[in-house]
Amino acid sequence: MSQEVPGLRVFKFGGASVKDAAAVFNLCRIVRQESTRGPLLIVVSAMGKTTNALERIYELGYRGEDYLVEKTALDSYHLLIGREVLAAVPAIRLQPFGPIDGILKYHFAAFAGHFHGKHKVEYDEGYDQIVSIGERLSAKIIQLALLTEFEGSEIVSLVAGTMLRTDDTWRESRVDWPETERLTRQAVAKALAAGAKIIVSEGFIGRTADGRTTTLGREGSDYSAAIFAYCLNAESVTIWKDVPGLLSADPKLFADAVLYPEVSYQETIEMAYYGASVIHPKTIRPLAERGIPLYVRSFLDPAAPGTLIHDCRHPPLAPAIIRKTGQGLISFASKDFAFISEENLEVIFGALAAARLKINLMQNSALSFSVVVDFDAARMRMLLARLAGQFRVQYNTDLSLFTIKNYDAASVEKLTAGRVLLLEQRTRSTFQFLVRE
Ligand code: ASP
Ligand code: MG
Q1: Is the pLDDT of residue 1 over 60?
Q2: Using one digit for the tens of pLDDT, what is the confidence trace for 139-163?
Q3: Domain-located, residue 131
Q4: Which of ligand 1's atoms lies nearest the C-alpha of 221?
Q5: Rounded to the nearest 10 degrees, how much is the dihedral formed by the CA atoms of 331, 337, 343, 346?
Q6: How confident is the model over 379-423, as pLDDT tens digits?
Q7: Is residue 265 one of the residues assigned to a domain?
Q8: Ligand 1 atom 6, closest CA
Q9: Nearest CA to ligand 1 atom 8
Q10: Does residue 236 lie in a domain region?
Q11: Domain identity same for 62 and 154
Q12: Which of 78, 133, 228, 310 is the most exposed place for a label (fewest CB within 10 A)?
């Protein structure tokens, strides 16, 4: 590769770390402190719960309903943070930018253009155009906020779409790695050569070769940070969160959750697979491939070491508890009370794949076959349409799937006590069970 970018670290800041002006100033202080150790690429998420709000707005707009109330609330939320941020920046540094209302209006304009434009696109494509606005607004405000700590010449903002090239699988786009590597290296090397200490970009967003905006899937900013780090062969990635690091359970549900100081890539991928929500599941692979360490640290306590995820061996971790809600249990039996055969299974798997129902657990008994899936009513209808003629299909919804990874007798006892287990399964390292909560 042409441009080497030595010593660069990538920081990802999620929605909670930029949810209001105080949080944004906290981010700026962390960046100031850390920048003494070398250049940083900052990847940001949309502010607070903006992405959820944009999804609702898009849904309304697409159906031709009135989204003005929701949109006005979202505008005011950003304007409020924007104004508070700008009030803290020395006037001289703001001169190149003009008033915040103007800056944000430029981004907000996308809405009207989209819903009232002549070229109405398919639902999923339109979703990416609208829902990505959250990251664009956030990156803009954060770029301006960093002027509280840095000179304008030290900060460069790079639009993610000009670096991260994807295909057009809307809402879950696939990365064109060679092209993304080329574009990212070129852009970042140029920024650093021009004297940038801090580069700001958006998470979650990519762009097709013909210039249309794509997204990487919900919570995809972690993945963006890993993609950029891979392309730049970065020194490390740090994900800044509102928890102290990678924990054995969600501390909101389990007060005795413990922090893992050091975890292997492999173990982290497995936790993400079972549904641990701390890191987007696609994040680890690119980092593991280039041996780039991942730190998970708390933006509320930046002096604490957090968790280091890298290529290492460690003794078995304390049991990890992972809870997946919104699960459906679907059972298939053949109509003539025959055993479920391999031929039957082939048909069932084919139908599940076609309906894009993701299997989290399966179990076979004499006369039936059951799967636990992330439930979705529309997908379930597709499945029934395909299989109801051939099988007796029964299903339950609103269930929770618990996984205890590295379980022991005490953790199983504690978690299952007093619960009715609809289904359970045990391997050497994991214990899983399904309950109605
Ligand atoms: N803002 C997007 C979401 O909430 C992406 C991200 O936060 O990682 O899904
Ligand atoms: Mg988010």
Answers
A1: no
A2: 999 999 999 999 999 999 999 999 9
A3: yes
A4: 8
A5: -10
A6: 999 999 999 999 999 999 999 999 999 999 999 999 999 999 999
A7: no
A8: 219
A9: 219
A10: yes
A11: yes
A12: 310
Check pocket membership of 203 for ligand 1, CB cut-off 6 A.
yes
pLDDT tens-digit series, residues 29-47: 999 999 999 999 999 999 9
19, 218, 227, 278: residue to mutate for ligand 1 pocket, most atoms within 8 A of CB: 218
Q: How many domains does the structure of the chain reveal?
A: 2
**Domain membership of residue 353 as a residue range:** 320-435
- With vertex at residue 5, the alpha carbon angle to CA 43 and CA 284, rounded to the nearest 5 degrees, is 50
Give the domain CATH number at 50. Answer: 3.40.1160.10
Q: Is the CB of 134 under 6 A from ligand 1?
A: yes
Q: Are residues 111 and 226 in the same domain?
A: yes
Domain closes at, from 241, 261, 294: 241
**How many CB atoms are closer than 10 A to CB 381?**
11
Instruction: Give the number of the ligand closest to the Cα of residue 44.
Output: 1
Atom of ligand 1 nearest to the CA of 218: 9
CATH of the domain at 408: 3.30.2130.10
219 and 367 in one domain?
no
Select from 215, 241, 267 the last residue of a domain.
241
Whose Cα sits closest to atom 2 in ligand 1? 219
Q: 48 in ligand 1 pocket by Cβ < 6 Å? A: no
